[in-house]
């Protein structure tokens, strides 16, 4: 039956689970004074000092380093879990990245340790703790509510396929991450990273501004070294955007490469489960564990014969591979919309890539970008031009009405069975769930539940306008990206794009195509991260792994400042709601 129903209970459970130990492990008590952020360290990466995990340096540790420590006896999975519990205890009142901790996590870790002792190591994720976005179902003591009070106590029929696969890989489910409620579907003007049940997630890079979403807690937890890796879901930017804003790696795969079965849905045509890591390899380890055919998601059947034998980690490489790379720059499609500071820094990174031997071709544009790419992210762009039959939102509104009804039909112990039920619940609980727009309701849901109401208005009817919009958005974006990837009759290694320009991942989302984002720098005005992303065609994840790891290796092996940096916890005592969406360029 579902367990701890609130963050406060989840955090209290830390004490009962023995979380404030290293004591029983290392024979010493925790110096609680070291857990408090000292004002003298404000606006530095030393504000939330991360203690050693015994003798192991857990801060910024890779999965390979954790595995090596467990293999040589320096560390166990139980100890690793307890150290992450301590980190959550230290940071979660501030960043609120974890919605619920798994009360079984220490028992699971002990089982993985016993297997290791018996000589059975399942793979690179054996004994490694992870979180998932709280819209991904698990058949255990954890809730699956999409951050809404409406689904508390509901019982799911089974693990989501991706969780089942991670369990089989030996990974340890640590808990569930906060998110934007209903993965941003409910409202069109809202505080990113907020849910009624989970509260406001905040980025450790800046507490006052949008942390990225809707997979906010997944990205924030990884960025703050509060978990090893995490899963998120994306319909349009919800993996790439929070990864980029929190200076970590985000990998959004081709729609249908990872099963959506057991995931609270938004749109069957665009939903994808992706991974977060502090390095490309860590994100790829997670991807390798979760991709594959699942009979419960018929979209996964299309990958037959299009995925590599042996997984994607085999394509990880070094900067030396860049001498064979030819990248395209869709300047007029996306780059013109990036702020000047970001463009300056990203151009320097591209110069480094060229100096390493790569060829970069400018102006490899998305076909018809003048029509399908707007001046800013707008998932109702078609309607704003007077053509709802060319709008992504036309498709998503109808899909959500139908897809959520299918998901809810399998739940037990709940009276919520349709979108109509959710909408009514929000009205009945206006103060917490914000059924009405502000100043009624909840300031975090400024426009109330206008997204739900727009979906409800469609009644899920797939009319001519729906099918025209589906055909337009898919065919135009797929042709646009595929054309841009072709130069001189040859396929390019990828398109380099600024993911802070949301139109870039939006075009990929409509196409159902994969994207990887790499951390590059932070905005001087806000301290929030931005990145460099690579776009590819369907099922070209191997290309993204190859070139993403090559660029990362170049970053890490040079003295460049343009790579992942630790957060500085700007405005760590501020608790504004809603969070700010502001221009972040310095000029």
From TrEMBL:
InterPro entries (UniProt xref): Amidase_dom, AS_sf
Alphabetical UniProt keywords: Signal
Residues in the signal sequence: 1-27
Keyword Protease attached: no
Keyword Signal on entry: yes
All copies of domain Amidase, residue ranges: 79-379
SUPFAM superfamilies: Amidase signature (AS) enzymes
Name of this chain's protein: Amidase signature domain-containing protein
């Amino acid at each position: 039956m579902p367990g701890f129903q609130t963050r406060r209970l989840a955090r209290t459970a830390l004490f009962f689970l023995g979380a404030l130990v290293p004591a029983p492990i290392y024979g010493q008590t925790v110096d609680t004074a070291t857990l408090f952020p000292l004002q003298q360290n404000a606006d530095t990466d030393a504000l939330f000092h991360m203690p050693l995990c015994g003798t192991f340096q857990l801060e910024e540790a890779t999965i390979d380093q954790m595995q090596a420590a467990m293999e040589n006896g320096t560390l166990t999975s139980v100890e690793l879990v307890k150290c992450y519990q301590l980190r959550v205890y230290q940071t979660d009142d501030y960043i609120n990245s974890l919605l619920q901790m798994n009360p079984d996590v220490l028992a699971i870790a002990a089982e993985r340790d016993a297997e290791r002792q018996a000589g059975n190591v399942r793979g690179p994720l054996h004994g490694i703790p992870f979180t998932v976005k709280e819209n991904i179902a698990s058949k255990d003591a954890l809730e699956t509510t999409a951050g809404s009070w409406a689904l508390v106590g509901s019982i799911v029929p089974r693990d989501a396929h991706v969780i089942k696969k991670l369990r089989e890989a030996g990974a340890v489910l640590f808990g569930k991450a906060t998110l934007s409620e209903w993965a941003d579907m409910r409202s069109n003007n809202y505080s990113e990273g907020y849910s009624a049940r989970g509260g406001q997630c905040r980025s450790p890079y800046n507490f006052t501004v949008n942390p990225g979403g809707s997979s906010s807690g997944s990205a924030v937890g990884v960025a703050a070294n509060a978990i090893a890796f995490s899963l998120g879901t994306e319909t349009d930017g919800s993996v790439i955007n929070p990864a980029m804003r929190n200076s970590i790696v985000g990998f959004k795969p081709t729609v249908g490469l990872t099963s959506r079965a057991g995931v609270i849905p938004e749109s069957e045509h665009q939903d994808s489960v992706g991974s977060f890591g502090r390095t490309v390899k860590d994100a790829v380890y997670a991807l390798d564990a979760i991709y594959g055919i699942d009979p419960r998601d018929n979209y996964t059947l299309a990958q037959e014969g299009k995925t590599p034998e042996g997984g994607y980690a085999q394509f990880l490489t070094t900067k030396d591979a860049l001498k064979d790379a030819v990248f395209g720059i869709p300047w007029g499609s996306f780059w013109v919309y990036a702020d000047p500071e970001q463009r300056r820094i990203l151009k320097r990174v591209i110069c480094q890539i060229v100096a390493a031997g790569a060829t970069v071709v400018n102006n490899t544009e998305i076909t018809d970008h003048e029509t399908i790419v707007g001046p800013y992210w707008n998932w109702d762009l078609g309607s704003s031009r007077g053509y709802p039959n060319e709008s992504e939102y036309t498709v998503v509104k109808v899909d959500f009405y139908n897809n959520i009804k299918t998901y809810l039909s399998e739940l037990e112990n709940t009276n919520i069975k349709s979108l109509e039920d959710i909408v009514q619940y929000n009205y009945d609980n206006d103060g917490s769930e914000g059924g009405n727009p502000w100043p009624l309701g909840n300031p975090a849901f400024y426009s109330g539940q206008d997204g739900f109401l727009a979906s409800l208005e469609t009644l899920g009817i797939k009319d001519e306008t729906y099918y025209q919009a589906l055909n337009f958005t898919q065919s135009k974006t797929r042709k646009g990206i595929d054309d841009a990837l072709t130069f001189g009759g040859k396929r390019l290694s990828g398109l380099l794009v600024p993911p802070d320009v949301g139109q870039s991942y939006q075009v990929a989302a409509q196409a159902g195509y994969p994207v990887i984002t790499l951390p590059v720098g932070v905005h001087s005005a806000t301290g929030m991260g931005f990145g460099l992303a690579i776009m590819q065609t369907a099922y070209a994840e191997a290309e993204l792994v190859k070139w993403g790891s090559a660029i990362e290796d170049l970053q890490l092996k040079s003295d460049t400042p343009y790579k992942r940096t630790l957060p500085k916890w700007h405005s760590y005592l501020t608790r504004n709601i809603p969070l700010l969406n502001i221009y972040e360029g310095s000029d």
